[in-house]
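Technical annex, item 7. During the second reporting period the consortium partners agreed on a shared format for inverse folding records so that results from different sites could be compared directly. Each record opens with the tokenized structure and is followed by the designed sequence. A conforming record, contributed by the partner at site C, is shown below for reference.
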């Protein structure tokens, strides 16, 4: 079997394991996928200036982030339905991240509840990602559940007011609700390892997978439409909602999906602890700028008032270093851990994270940087 040595290797293995509908949901962008290509181009254009003969014996990635010590400035990003990639996939991601020494952010739309993940990964540093429901009382109750499970950091996704135009999902019949078709049934049948190892295990143990965090009275299998207005995602969010969350949530508050300096400044004024400069992995709107294009101006404007994180498009450890050199305090990884999870389960998720760290370490050695602060500003 082919050795898995880089992101493309893990992606190829994941593609063989996952049904096409699920793989495309993870892998692809939106509309004509211009934003997806722009992400890659923006990172490829950046070069880092080395310092030679610096005499460093080893590199250190130890990082203080929002009051926590991390072994490396990485976070596993929140991803919906990660539990479909592997059975109990969200818990496996949490354990893998814990062993690497980084946090994992649990999605509102995870298959597994935060309570179950906490029981399965008691030592993990759990963050919680929030999609605000229209019923604010239910939203507040969900946050209480996250706090009770030791989540001290809340990540509010602010860049998804409506469902993105992902035409391939409709062609593949993949969505919520999932609509079975002859094409999708044949596709699943052609991936027997996933069918037996993931879907069948859910069916035998707990039934058709659901959005685990939805209240019992509103929870529906992924094959049924969600008709409850109370738990629809609120597309009318504004900064007053952030003020409400700031008063409600006692821990660290992060706004994810910021690309404009003005929005970053507003987040700082409202007492947010951090923002994530993010294009949602190129999955939402095809005409967005790349985070690498926006990050320097945002860091200059608000870097002294809140922590600036970044994500989108990372395929190599050098991509992480480029975001860090542009001023990010840490980088969130979305697709990569999922490809590792699909390729090799929990061990695969851990392996792909350690691969990125190893690539970072080798690049730092060539750059002559002993720690992240030693990275020289990138050339463009």
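Designed sequence (site C submission):
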């Amino acid at each position: 079997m082919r050795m898995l040595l880089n992101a493309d290797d893990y992606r190829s293995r994941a593609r063989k394991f996952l049904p096409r509908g699920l793989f495309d949901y993870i892998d692809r962008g939106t509309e004509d996928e211009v934003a997806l290509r722009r992400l890659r181009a923006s990172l490829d254009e950046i070069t880092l200036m080395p310092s030679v003969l610096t005499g460093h014996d080893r590199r250190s990635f130890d990082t203080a982030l929002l009051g926590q010590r991390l072994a490396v400035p990485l976070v596993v990003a929140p991803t919906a339905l990660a539990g479909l990639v592997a059975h109990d996939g969200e818990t496996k991601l949490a354990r893998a991240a814990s062993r690497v020494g980084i946090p994992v952010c649990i999605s509102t739309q995870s298959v597994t509840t935060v309570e179950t993940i906490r029981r399965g990964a008691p030592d993990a540093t759990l963050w919680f990602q929030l999609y605000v429901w229209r019923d604010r009382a239910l939203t507040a109750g969900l946050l209480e559940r996250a706090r009770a499970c030791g989540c001290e950091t809340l990540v509010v996704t602010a860049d998804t007011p409506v469902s993105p135009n992902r035409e391939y999902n409709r062609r593949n019949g993949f969505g919520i609700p999932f609509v079975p078709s002859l094409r999708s049934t044949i596709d699943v049948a052609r991936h027997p390892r996933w069918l037996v190892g993931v879907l069948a295990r859910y069916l035998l143990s707990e039934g058709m997978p659901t959005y685990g965090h939805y209240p019992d009275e509103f929870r529906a299998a992924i094959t049924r439409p969600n008709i409850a207005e109370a738990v629809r995602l609120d597309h009318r969010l504004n900064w007053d909602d952030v003020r409400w969350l700031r008063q409600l949530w006692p821990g660290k508050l992060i706004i994810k999906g910021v690309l404009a300096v003005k929005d970053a400044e507003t987040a700082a004024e409202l007492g947010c602890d951090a923002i994530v400069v993010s294009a949602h992995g190129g999955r939402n709107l095809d005409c967005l700028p790349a985070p690498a294009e926006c990050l320097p101006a945002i860091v200059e404007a608000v870097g002294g008032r809140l922590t600036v994180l970044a994500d989108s498009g990372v395929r190599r450890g050098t991509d992480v270093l480029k975001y860090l050199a542009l001023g990010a305090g840490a980088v969130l990884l979305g697709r990569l851990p999922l490809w590792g999870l699909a390729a090799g389960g929990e061990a695969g998720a851990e392996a792909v994270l350690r691969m990125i760290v190893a690539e970072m370490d080798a690049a730092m050695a060539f750059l002559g940087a002993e720690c992240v602060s030693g990275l020289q500003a990138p050339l463009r």
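The longest strand covers residues 252-258. The beta strands are 63-65, 68-70, 74-76, 104-106, 126-130, 153-157, 252-258, 274-277, 307-311, 331-333. All partners now use this format for quarterly exchanges.
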